[in-house]
Structure formats: structure tokens, C-alpha cells
Predict the structure.
Amino acid sequence: MSNAKTPVTVIGLGPMGSAMAGAYLNAGHPVTVWNRTASRAEPLVERGAKLAATPAEAVTASGLVILSLTDYAAMYAILDGVGDALAGRTIVNISSDSPGKTREAGAWLADRGARLLTGGIMVPYMMVGTEQSYVFYSGATEVMDEHRDTLAVIGRPDYRGTDLGLAQLWYQAQLNLFLTMLSSFAQSAAMLESAGVKAAELVPYATETLNLAGFFLEPSAQGIDSGDHGDQGANVTMMGATADHVVTASEEAGIDLTLPRAIQAHYRSAIERGHGRDSWTSLSEVIRKP
Ligand code: NDP
């Protein structure tokens, strides 16, 4: 049987799991699905997926079982009752959770004779199966190698190493950047809204600032990795004063202060620890050792 026809089971049919099952149907794989709320499977069944009656039936249908759930607790809720069906299966859990939770899941599945590969998908559901789509994976190399081609259907596999926690560590590190960016965009929009400016007007300026941030990353990484925080023209005192001004501007706009106060706290801690004349990268020292 060619890899293109490897049977795949997808458990969890939210927007992400449905998009994954859809990508496998498009690629001609036999697809079995199961979801707690069975009605969410209907569009996929119309396209040729087989709806398993129980989680045990879903797990038994394919050697490769992909989970797309809210968190790892949902995995236990679904798989705890499947009995011996897990033995010999490969579970690829592409659900969000902490690295520690994914390592615990590896031990739990190993006790039941199953192998776990953990994943974190780095694109929104509507981009699954496109060229932009990529997925962080971690777990045993042989499991990755065995399923690499089949997993490539949903996005480019980016294997991070054997430690099961690595995929989620990378995923959450990226999501930290993403979520902070979204919150800061909402904060900036609220600041401007106090002067009657629409968020749409901010978009091209915000895009330019985010592109500029990319320019800072490489020299910043050098400082963070080496611990050499020599002033490169953006020292903690100057940047910290600006962080204070963002708080005051938000205060004057009458909006929430949680995010700007968190940033301000980083700069204040760095100044307290004597980094006032160092590069802003010395914030990494405050973050590493709170
Ligand atoms: P949803 O929250 O829409 O779907 C979650 C799925 O988990 C549903 O199938 C739901 O079942 C199931 N579920 C949750 N709790 C339980 C439980 N206790 N028992 C059984 N089933 C349960 O999420 P998405 O599809 O959007 O996301 C799935 C994963 O993909 C998440 O980890 C998310 O972080 C990640 N992700 C999502 C992206 C996106 O664009 N949506 C982008 C990148 C990552 P039911 O239908 O019955 O509620």
C-alpha cells in the first residue's frame, strides 16, 4: 500500500480536527472519525469519512490515530475506556497543552502498549494542508520516520527531538509571541479608540512595526544567548521610560492596564538589578530568574 493511502483516524472534530480529516479525504486516504458530539462529523461523512460508533472502534480502524482536542485531559476522557484497543497503535496528539502534560501522556499510553508522537500545529485551521502549514513534532525518531509522509498531508513536519515535551514547548513559545502580539494589538487599538481612531487605521502601522521587530530579533538573540548585554542604542532606562509612558497613556485613555503594567514591571526589575545602562536584552535575566 502506498503512503498516500494509509488509513488515518481523526478524533476530535472542532475546526482543526475537521480540517485535518478533510485534508486526508482530499488526499485519498481512508479516513475514520469520532467526535464526542457526533453531529460535527456529518460534513466529513458526506465527503466519504467513516464515523466510528465508539472511540475503541475509531482507534482500531487505523494504525495512525490523530487527536485534535482542546487539551490532554480530553484525551484521557476519550481513551480511558477503550481497553485493549490502544495496544500497537500510534497516537499523534496535536492538541495544545504543557510539555509536562505531554510527557505524562507518553507514559500513560506506553503502559497501554501505544506509542505517542506529540505535535503542535502552527497555522489556523483554514490553512491546514497548504504550503504554509507546518507542525512541530517530538517523540521517538522511528515513529516520526514511519509516519512522516502521511503527516505531511496536513503540513510540513518539523521534528524537534525525542523528548515528548519539545513539540509543545516550541508550540507554546510561538503561541506566547502570537498571543502577546494579539493582546498588544487590542491594547493599542483601545488607546487610539479613545481619540476616535478605528482599529482598521492602525493595521498598516502595526504591520510595519511588527516587520521592524523582525529586524531586532537576530542581534537580540545574540545578547540573550551570550549574556552580553552591552548597550546597542536601546538601553533599559530609555526603554523603561517608554514603558512608563505606555502605562500613563493607557491610564489617560481609561483602559485596562494589565499588559502595559506587566511590561513596565520587567523594566523596573531590570533597573533594580542594576541593568539600567545595559541593552534591553538584559530583561532576559529578569525573566530567567524571577
Ligand atoms: P475546539 O475547541 O473547537 O475542538 C475541540 C475538540 O475537543 C472537539 O472535538 C471537542 O468535542 C473535543 N473535546 C474537548 N473536551 C472534550 C472532552 N472532555 N471529551 C471529549 N471531547 C472533548 O478546538 P479546535 O478544533 O479549534 O482546536 C483543536 C486543537 O487544535 C486545540 O488544541 C487548539 O489549541 C489547536 N489549534 C487550533 C487552531 C485553530 O485554528 N482552531 C490553530 C492551531 C492550533 P465536542 O465537539 O464534543 O465539543
